[in-house]
Amino acid sequence: MDQKAAEHVAEVMKAVAHPVRLQIIELLETKEMCVGDIVKAVGGKQAITSQQLNMMRDKGVLSSRRDGAKVYYRIENKNIIKLLRCINDHCESKRR
Fold first, then answer.
1. Strand, coil or helix: 78
2. Which structural domains are found in the chain, ordered by start?
């Protein structure tokens, strides 16, 4: 992996390396959701949750669409789910 590729991979990993962002990805794994529903599910403030969503969108992890006044988010890169499952499996095996 060259330096530029390594930097890009690190940026994507940083984009998901936060407990709230991990919860958001898990929520969006099976369906898209509007910001308000995501906020309710993770129990945060809308402004902070929106910042988290925008950061992941900017890194290509999520994508969004507007429907009237609502913004809906979905997983853009399904490989991120595979990566997080691998990491979770690793963590689970270390707890046993």
1. coil
2. 3-95 (1.10.10.10)
